Amino acid sequence: MAIRALRAASVAFEPHLYPWEPKGGTAASAEALGVDEHLVIKTLIFEDDQRRPLCILMHGDREVSTKNLARTIGVKTVAPCTPEVADRHSGYQVGGTSPFGLRRAMPVYMERTIAALSTIYINGGARGFLVAIDPQEAIRVLAPTLVDAATAS
User: Fold this and answer.
1) Is the pLDDT of residue 35 over 90?
2) Rounded distance between C-alpha atoms, residue 12 and residue 7, angstroms
3) What kind of fold does domain 2-152 have according to CATH?
């Protein structure tokens, strides 16, 4: 679904396959591709206090401050979904979640500093598959709200 969504939006991307490791996270994918982990973008599915899903894009070497994110979007709390719930909301398996072609429409938030990068590596819809794209293209297609929600990991 992600690749279809990218092609439908005429987004230029470069596919990158790598050996997926359970619990390897962005550190493993960055190492496999030989890129800085800061350029590998995590696609995380969270829920707010009303159990409404939301998608947050974050640098691989940073964590989401749930307090900052909740305050920014005007809700009491946000928390990561369990893998099963995230899979249902997104239509992807955790570890292969892409913000492109999500099963359920939901707001997308992006850490503001991602927009300043020249290239990002983001999930292409499967475990072990990232696509390199211009973050401005991600902004054009996803229309995310830019937020300041990063903390050091």
Assistant:
1) yes
2) 8
3) YbaK protein (3.90.960)
